[in-house]
User: Fold these one by one.
Assistant:
Number 1:
Amino acid sequence: MTTAGSIGSPVARALLALAMTAGSVAAHAPRAQSEAGGLLARPANLQVEHISLQRALQELTRLSGVPLAYSPSMLPGRRKVSCRCARVSVATALDSLLHGTGFAYREADGQVMLVPGPPGSLPAAGADPPLPGTAALGALSATLLGADGAQPPFITQPALVHAATIAGSVTSEGGGPVAGALVTSLRSRLSATTDATGRFRIVVPVGRIAAGPDALRLERIGYGSTDVPFELHNGDIRVDAVLPLQAVALDQVVVTGTAGNQERRAQAAVIGTIDAAEVVRQSPIQNVTQMLQARLPGINITESSGTTGAAARIHIRGASSISLSNQPLVFLDGVRIDGGTRGLVNVSGALTVGQAPSALNDLNPGDIESIEVVKGPAAATLYGADASAGVIQIITKRGRMGSRSFAQEFTFEYDHIMPNFEVPSNWARCTAALIAPTSPNPLCRGQDTGTLVSDNPAGRIHAFRNGRLGSFRYTARGGGESYGYFASFGIADERGTTLNDRLEQRSGRVNFTFAPTPRLTFDAGMGLVRTENELPRSDQDAYGYYIQSILGSPLTVRDDASDGSIRGGMLFASTSLESLSSIISRVSALRVTPSVQVRFAPVPWFSNRITLGADITEGTGFQLFPRNDQGWYPDRLPAGNGDVESTQEADRSYTVDYLGNVHAEWPSARLASDLSFGSQFIQRVSSRLSGAGAGLATNTAYLVTNAAVSTVGQGFGESRSHGLFVQEQIGWRDRLFLQFGLRADRNSAFGSEVGTFHLPKFGASWVVSEEPFWDGLSAVVPTVRLRAAWGTTGRSPSSGASLETWSTAKFVNENGQLELGIVPGNPGNADLKPERGKELELGFDAALLNDRLGIEFTWFDKTTTDLLVSVPVSPSSGFGASPLGNIGEVVNRGAELMLHATPVSRRNLVWDVRLNASTLHNEVTGLGTAGTFIHNFRAFVPGRQIAAWWVHRIREVDEAAQRVIVSDTAEFSGNQLPTFHASLATTLTLWRNLRVYAQLERKSGYHVLNLNQEFRDRSARSSASVNLPAGQGGYDTVDRLRRLGPYISERTGLPVGVANVKEPYVQKGDHFRLRELTATLALPMSLVRRIGASAAALTVGGRNLGLWAADFEGHDPEVLGFGPHPTGLNQIFNSDVFTTPPSRRWIVRLNVQY
Amino acid sequence: MLTRFRFRRDAAWTAALLLAGCNLDVSQPGLIDASTFDPLADARTLSMSAQQNFYDAFADLINSTALYSGETWTGAVRQESNDIGRRAIVDTNIDLNGNFWAPLQAVIATNDQVVDVLRETADFNVSIHAARSSLWSGFAIAMMGEIFCQGVIDVGPPLTPAQTLDSAIVRFQRALQITSGLSSAEATKILNAARVGMARAQLHKGDFPLAAQTASAVPADFVASAIYVDDPQSRGRTANGVFTFSAGTTQIVAADYRLLTDPRIPFADAGGTAQDGRSRLFRQRKYNGFTDPIRVASGLEARYIIAEARLRQGDTAPARALIEERRLAGTQPPFTDTGEPAILAELMNQRARDFWLEGRHLGDAIRNPSATPFIPATGVPFYKPDQGEFGPLTCLDVPFVEKANNPNFR
């Protein structure tokens, strides 16, 4: 697997591979030294016109097969060249291309090196930007120092290097350090990565390398790839290099959703890339979800709760489906994996799977090189009829094949986790029964009837407390002549903000790359993770810390226990810290993700890639409500006897993927063609066995079989999908690309007899700035690319969804014994077919201000037709489930903007800013025969956003009559999905070794149902707002009427249920959040060397440090009381229902590199 | 040559992989495909399952109507429960469908389906399964006719209460017809239960002579009950749902009933507050376990039907006799009033006590609004005064989900 950010392009990779045997060359050699019959005499086969010199050289390498070594940053960047060199030698072609540039070339040791010529050979001023001499390069300085610090003589005869250390620093043009840059010695194939201060160090093994000219290749996302020549010799060698900013990396390779030419310049649809290594280095993140959060426009992640390890909801470009999942597909190195939730115990109440652990977060962020995100059908067609919600491809780190190096890294982190909220107090007025001197209630005893008292049981029992995280990560990376390896080990122990909130994770990964021949490469990888997640009860579950605390009453507080302790005040009289923390809800998983990828090119024009992989998880769920004699769990019957549930689940997913590519060129017509074809087969199997028992003899014998009554349950599900695709990509002059593709898919959800689902795609990409007519503008706007793409994907329901089914249901027979019976299940739909998502995407990429400002703008219009809707059936049909039907249409339309600017780039101050912004217009445009339907105060109505809030609206507050007139029927009351989402990330690098990073996030245009407040105001009547006078924090008369009623229908005059008038509690969720803040200090080298390390950095910072949500009355508008449901109507339900809000954390992290 | 060989090998491997991926037939052992199930051969399973649907729905309906008609109070913090308790519900109240309407509809649909399957068979007229399912479908429809303003059967058009009750009567008649030719114990039970059900529907419909006549055939000691077992994994379906619900902290015996000190209304002070933190929790003790049966039809009810029907025809004797007997059972002094309205009120009073938590009170109140006791009056402050006042007692509206998805409502 080729990873973005590791090695720039196929040409660069070829250069790297072929530059291994580079020999000696004199720096100021004659302009051309051709050896008869050598590389320079080979046919050039080159036919280019008005393209950049660098592109022309790349083409020459590709077409002639002759490796060229040079420093791109030294080439005149804006120089455009033409060369009709189809029938001339490489030497002649180089003469033509390099004419006037001041560059010379020389063949040596199997490659041709381009080096600056003598001073006199430099181009005249004004012809092109002057090329500086070696000693005074504006963008590059290479200083060669001998062992004694003196300038070494030029080495003209090969000699073995006895001991050499190449060290230096990599800075941006302004002088700021560039961290995370890959530095590779082209001759020795040794490599290193720069630390936080931009420093690197490569130790050349003794006696392995011949002395002579070499070059360091520098690569980093966001910068142009650069080669820096230097002389390899004994002793210390210092090479300081400057990486030029590159706001738009058109030559970056993207592997997700692409075939044929995988350079970004050839891709018609935008594919987002997250530099995972950089995010891990500077951000306070603990998992993959946080790595994705607010990094790319169009990706909306809602954290859902503060429960440790709980999954988040991920929406890309809105919500396309009503009944099927809106979560994107997740691939790991080309292999489909489970990125959803692991709902093996239900801690969220009967209606939800709420705070379930995340399968996506099993992955160790430290193992990830980059993440690519395919946002919609325009780019996701190659992923078939199930990819309409987007695709996330996680690319793990690989070894440094050919580097003959070994590097290792240790990361220690400690997090201080804070609840980030205060549970409000409960209020009530003392009753006559509680004021007597003998009253058990210490709050009312001796008071007057009606005295207002308050209690805060959560604070009294210390329900929410500070948690912590301790983690350690180790990674090793290296390689030999024809192999590379990466290995990691991670350990993390986290304690959340309640007693039984815990996550323990142990993970390991080994990736191995082996290339026995240049035509054949094997990549094998294996990830292994063991997680154990203990979850507190949350959301609507009656035994959650939050619900028990905020729905309690001061009137139930008692101090009549023998020890005089204060008890009660909670939702249940028997609740205590001990009773809540004694409940065990645990999910464990052992997961292995093996993969093998073989890349084989039997001939240069035909390449093949086969990927085989699996995602295998053995999960267990365990839940215990212990036996007790305190009446702790009053609704678990028989009360106090204890009950236990145990679940074992095996999830297996297999991927077989083939991609072939035939490349052809017609130099005379300047055309290139890539015909790609492939097949993808994915099988997913899930089996579950569960047991439940009630009535335990003791709490130490908690097997299901130890229970007085025990029962068993089993589940099984399987799905298969198979797709074939073909794509033709035509490139003209390497700057205009056209794509046509077609994928044919079949899915087990519809059975073998159902026809194939066809998914076409079209696209075009045009690098306008490389056209001759752009020359006049290139000084102002050096890079511009226009792109347009149209594509189709879909979303398939689960297998069996089309069938009319029965469900099992027990009955009591004539003898009073249980038998298994059946009842109607799903009416089914024989005509069922996948949802079809079509998307048109238009956009441009541009670099401005001398590559200091990069812009990526995209407008998208995604339409989901044949929308699968679980059409609520008339209850009188008798069916228990709602059948799926292909009904209706949803549109998601919007604009995405990504700006990357470096306003200041000086030696001691670099300021980097990234802005992501996206808008979303989501609208149900039709529901066919289903018509409008309402489900739990959310409606699916043409003309409105999907699942828009739909409640009875307040027409008039009649203060005189003390009543509120409300609409006769429910009406629109707000959106669920934010219509605007933006994030601003900025990094300040000071004095080259201190980096301060902050990320702000904004979401607006949506509403959240604040059921916490509603319950406290209306039902429990325990809120301060209801109990305190208007001037002291209580509602005024009008607001009190608005919230509490009584409500009268405007048409009938009859009472309307308070629960139906939710308007006061459907509250704006608009907010700003200071999501991340860190400061990273690169430790002084003197200290680093003392521990034998090559670099070390200390990071301190915090996450979720500030929240400004003026119109939301709860703790946090991003909680999901119904959890991030994978499917169904409740997946779009922004509600705060007694959910623990996301926590705040402070982190300290130490990273040491060897 | 070597390249050609490799190319062929590569192509062969690719082709094998492609072929391997073509099989899309997957096993779904968790699904019961309707096409693989023979409802005729498994008519007993279908019918018994549908019977359990009634047992389950019956308990749900008892709990829900008890709250709406004042037999119990709510100690829950859910606002929907408060709204039902104070009779302020609209058609989008989710409990209206979930706790009242949908359970009844599941009973009707599944039992009618059994009858439809068996109808074409030669032994339909002697099929105990057809009789059983006719009985429970009849009861569910009769209950719908008693408490809903409109009835719906199998996604059909809205029916008036009288039409709905007629539909129930048809099913009871079928049950009677079939079981009259059978002699098993279950057949006899169905026979008498169908008589009670039919008489109940006739009474509610106002066909007093017919109601009295039908009920008079029921033996005085006859009892047909919904039976339950304790299975932790299916308590929601197979256990006594009234006991299950009352064992929590959200159902409180209403003060009107507690004050009666009638042994027919057993309750206990739970010694604490309900879920809402302020209402003292009094639990019912009529049902004391998951396996306690709930009476569906009985000779006693038949006598009540006869008494009420005759009373409405001007004959007070049966009512007075029954009142005398039931007051004795309730340790009450003899009843002396002789006026017909007072007798009807007392008859309904005794009926409210005898059938407390048996799902009759709401229907009684709708049938005899002025004579049925223990119904908080409209405009009276709710027992949680800050929630407002009681709304008017009316029949229940058809839930929105039925109106929205039943083409006959558009």
Number 2:
Amino acid sequence: MPRPSIDQIRSVADFTTLFRWNLTFAKFPSAVASPPNTEDLNIRCESAELPRLTGQTIIQNVRGHQVKQSGIHNYVDSITLTFIETVDNIIHNFLKNWREAAWETKSGIAVPKNELEAIVILQRLNNQDVPIWEYKLIGAFLQDFDLGGTLDGVTSDSLKPQMILAFDYFDDRSLS
Amino acid sequence: MAFLNSIEQLRQVEWGRKYLWDIKFEKAPVPFNEFFPAVDVEEDKAVLETFTIEEFMEVFEVPLKSGIKAIRITFLDDANNTLVDWLSDWINRSILNNGKHISTLEKSVKQVTLLKLNSRRESLSGQEMSYWVIPKGQITYNGSSSSDPQTYSVTFVIVGQISDRREFEENNP
């Protein structure tokens, strides 16, 4: 079979791009006080990791031979969302309130699991900004965060806090 | 000529996997009446004790009798300690009657069903085992200072095997 010609490549559908996507919090954790507007988060979200599933390989070693079988598949532990903070502290407030719901400062009180979990949706868009694929993260909670780096006296970059969200599983589907 | 001559012989086998099993206690408290949150299980499939005979300069070992079969289960519990309370009540109330008398075996048993599954998570034909069991030993609550899940390990002695599960369910609605 010959290699693809330039005309064949030119005739395929538009290639997907990395910059057309949306973040939606379909359900905020009910225990989080004053959650932000999901659009406020979407506007500020600079980058988002896509979720994935990794499989274990079962290896049978029998007298010098090694054969493999597909084993248990697990969803990766977490995804990272990177935001650009604004002076109204939308991201900081959300992080603090979610964190406090999971582990209250001083007392260590935690709300029940179902009040701590969010449903997060990432959508990829085509070049006409129409959603073409959706990743729905079920059971997402704040596992870790980074407030955006080191404060100093010479850098004029934006503060970019990160949310590391753990989740139980994701459901993805085509929207086109 | 060896018995195993080619890697292709190994490739023809669908090898067993440790996670393909399931277990359920009948009439366990909700939500564990639908599934039992066991994470490890050991099931004695056959037990044979032997008798040693020593004669002259030889030692022989011959079959003597069967032994007690048991199921050892490590399981998780929920935040309300539902299962450990249920197991404690089974021993303290249903069997020991709060120290007043000991129940008969018939009134002490509960039914547990163990399935072996294929990779499609279908029950393997002829490998659905239902037993009458009683707990053996102590049920101990373990507290620590970590956020590890709460687990318990309990041994259940098999006191009977239910040969026809359908017949049992008809008689015990």
